[in-house]
Write a structure and sequence with these properties.
The protein is mainly beta and 89 residues long. It has one domain. It contains no helices and seven strands.
Length: 89
Amino acid sequence: MTTSPTVRYFLSYSSIKLPLNLVNEINEADLNHRNFYYRGVFDDQGRLSHCQKIVYNEVESEHYYRYHDSGRLVWAQVIEDDEAREIDC
């Protein structure tokens, strides 16, 4: 059985490696008080599958991730400044 993805919100990320490690989680109710935040979509195994950096209510950048059955990251797509880069990991 597949469950719906979980959406969570964060103030920042740590590490330069992919996938991003989102940190400092905030509640959805606190988003109105923020100029920017990260929206993370997590799969039913708790892995980050999609991440957006939101600045003044606009998507500034996005990351998409795919994982091997073992949990290892195998593919990423990074979209910044209207340019998409695909990375085989």
